[in-house]
Amino acid sequence: MEIHQLRYFVAVAEEGSFSHAAEREHVSQPSLSQQIQKLEAELNQPLFDRLPRTVVLTEAGHCLLVYARQILTGIADARRSVAALGQEVAGQLSVGAVPSIALYVLPRLIGQFQQRYPKVTFELFEDTTDKLARRLEDGTLEVVLASSGDESPTLEHHSLGEEPLLMLLPEKHWLARKKTIKWSDLAGEKFLLLHEVHSLSKKVRQLLAANKLNPEVVLQGAQLVTIASMVAAGLGVTVIPQMMVEAGFIRNCVAVPFARPVPTRELTLLRNPLRFESKAAAAFREEAAAAFLT
Question: Hey, what CATH topology would domain 91-160+266-293 get?
Fold first, then answer.
C-alpha cells in the first residue's frame, strides 16, 4: 500500500469521479485508475462501485477512507513539524469561519495578519459550525472561527469573548427611535432568521423561547446581508451581531441595543488538539485572540 495510492483513493472518494480526481492530483486518468485497481487487488476488496455517471464507495471503501485520511494527515503534519523547526512563520494556512463571522471579521483580521507575516497564504472555507468541525477532525482545516454551539467535544476551544447582539429594524419602524429594546416590545413582530443549521440562528431561537416569544418567521435565509436587505424593505425584523454594524454592512436599517441583560454570543476559535499546530496556525490564533479581546 503506497502513499500515493491512498492520496488517489481519497481524491476519487471526495470528487466522486476518476477524471476529476486525476485533474486534482495532476496525473492521467489511466494512471490513477491503475493505482486504484492495484490497491483493490492488494486489499482483495472493491473500494468503489462504478456507476454510469459517478463512483460511490463500497462498505470496504468507507472503512478505508477513515484510515487513509488519518494517514495522509499524519504525514502532512510530520512534514510541517520538521519543516517548522527553526523556520519563520510561513506557508499555507487553512481557515474556516461561520458566515455570521467570516464576512465581517476575516478581511480585517487576515489583512493585519499578512502585514506581520507576509509569507503566509490562506485557504478559506465558509460553512456551518458542524461541517467546519468535521473538517477540523478529518484534517482539512487547521483553525475555525465560530460562535459557541454544538461543537465536537474532541476539539480544543479558545474563547474569544462575548459579542453583544442587536435588534435590526426598518428605518421607519416604531421601535427604531428607542434607545434600547425589551424582548416584550417584540410581541407580534414578524421575524427574518438564518436557517436553523446556523449557530447564530440557534442562539436567537433560544433567546426568543427563553423570553416566551413564538414569532411568525416569514423568511429564512443563508446570509445575514440578504436578510438585512429584506429588513430594509420592511418584511420584518431580525437579530444581528454587533460586528455586522461595525463592519458597515447596515443600509436603510437601524440597529438598536437590547435592554439589560444584554444578549450575547460567545466567539470561539476551534482547533484539533491531535494535529500538529504550525507556526502560522499558532500565530493566527494569537492574532485572533488579540483582535477579538481588545
Answer: D-Maltodextrin-Binding Protein; domain 2 (3.40.190)
CB 264 within 8 Å of CB 186: no
Q: Determine the Cα angle at 59 with ends 58 and 65, to 5°.
A: 85
Residue-wise pLDDT tens digits, 208-257: 999 999 999 999 999 999 999 999 999 999 999 999 999 999 999 999 99
* CA–CA gap between residue 153 and residue 70 (Å, rounded): 19
The whole-angstrom separation of Cα 171 and Cα 251 is: 9
Query: Do residues 261 and 152 lie in contact, with contact meaning Cβ atoms separated by under 8 Å?
Result: no
Q: Longest Cα pair distance anywhere in the chain, in angstroms?
A: 72
On whether the CB atoms of residues 262 and 75 are closer than 8 A, the answer is no
User: Hunting for cell 485572533 — which residue is that?
Assistant: 288
Q: Which pLDDT does position 151 carry in this prediction?
A: 63
In the chain, beta strands by DSSP E: 48-50, 55-57, 91-97, 120-126, 143-147, 156-170, 190-194, 216-221, 238-241, 253-257, 264-271
CATH number for the domain running over 3-84:
1.10.10.10
What is the pLDDT confidence band of residue 173, given thresholds at 50, 70 and 90? very high
Domain ranges of the chain: 3-84, 91-160+266-293, 163-264
Type of residue numbered 202: K
The percentage of the chain sitting over the pLDDT mark of 90, rounded to a whole number, equals 81
